């Protein structure tokens, strides 16, 4: 941004200086043509610098977005782990409650019904815990992929701005050559017609 500001400041100073030269030269065609060429070059340079700065800013925005997505990815992983821990706690609570109720109802810990219920609670609770942990890991991977995509888009913006700036410079030079290059006059084009005899 600082470089862009310096280029714009220098261009403004340059244009002011050129305008002073024009007033002092008062219609000297050579001076006016030179000023016009230099002004075109300066305008092309400023336009190219602006394009490059825009590409850099877009990359900075993409990198910031990627950082935020990475933070969210870690938060999603942590949320999945917390949910898994909570489900494990509930499973243990359900198993403990089952043992207490079985003992209070006169069943033993080795009774087939108590063992079947214990196995079901253990299996279902473990499955819930694993799904919560997997969900957090999956959301984390998704956010990391989005972060990578944002960084790639930012890099593409910088590369694109370089090509656009190069195109702006080439277009400016081409326009100058079209406008100021000496033109071949029609008098130099000789067309000889030979008559046959």
Oligomerization status of the protein chains: single chain
Using the alpha-carbon principal axes, give the shape.
rod-shaped
Strand content: under 5%
Measured on Cα atoms, how large is the radius of gyration?
Answer: 38 Å
| Low-confidence segments | none
Helix count equals 3
Largest sheet: none
Q: Mean pLDDT, nearest integer? A: 81
Q: First CA to last CA: what distance?
A: 75 Å
- Compute the number of structural domains: 1
Give an overview in words:
The protein has 197 residues and is mostly helical. The protein has three helices and no strands. The protein has one domain. Helix content is 86%, strand content 0%. Helix 1 (2-25) runs antiparallel to helix 2 and helix 2 runs antiparallel to helix 3 (112-180). It is rod-shaped. The mean pLDDT is 81.
Topology (elements, then pairings):
Elements: H1 2-25, H2 29-104, H3 112-180
Question: Can you summarize this structure?
Answer:
With 197 residues, the protein is mainly alpha-helical. Helices cover 86% and strands 0% of the residues.
